[in-house]
Amino acid sequence: TGMRKGEILGLKWSQIKDGLIYLDGKDTKTKESRQLPVNVDLAELFREIRAEEGLRSEFVFTYQSKCIKDVKTGFKGALRRARIDDFKFHDLRHTAASQMVIKGATLREVQEILGHSNITMTMRYAHLSEEKKREAVNRLSGLTGRHKKSQKAILAS
Questions:
Q1: What is the tens place of the pLDDT at every residue in 70-113?
Q2: CB 46 within 8 A of CB 40
Q3: What does pTM read for this prediction?
């Protein structure tokens, strides 16, 4: 979803309705309300949590039926087990933004999903892969009307 850590940890079951997550402005950094669509994977995760935990808490993400306040220890452990260095929880927002752009989302769409007040901030988040940059440049091929060589032949020469 690209949600901020505080938005995730404070998420309540009552905020999830009709395939959307409703974030109230009082709970967002920009103080603006927004709605986020729930994709198939997240809907399945919510079903699993609900089946396992029931409704013992109003919060979605709990430990011993209480709201989780922080994930530092667990996140650090997961990074260690995955052998990932120099990665912060907030980097997940950057990853989400980049993946959305790589998969075809517009910067305006990503801006709204992340809740950025201006597009400049979104551009800092939406890093493109080298492959997507190559695809973008290759869209210019053939504009000159000159003899077309295959990209492989040109690169090989």
A1: 999 999 999 999 999 999 999 999 999 989 988 889 999 999 99
A2: no
A3: 0.78
Length in residues, the chain: 157
| Separation CA 145–CA 157 (nearest Å) | 20
Task: Of 102, 105, 107, 106, give the one whose Cα is nearest residue 118.
Answer: 107
Our CA angle for 95, 103, 87, nearest 5°, is: 10
SS (H, E, C) the chain: CCCCHHHHHCCEHHHEECCEEEECHHHCCCCCCEEEECCHHHHHHHHHHHHHHCCCCCECCEECCEECCCCHHHHHHHHHHHCCCCCCCCHHHHHHHHHHHHCCCCHHHHHHHHCCCCHHHHHHHCCCCHHHHHHHHHCCCCCCCCCCCCHHHHHHC
Q: Which two tokens stand for residue 86?
A: 């120099």
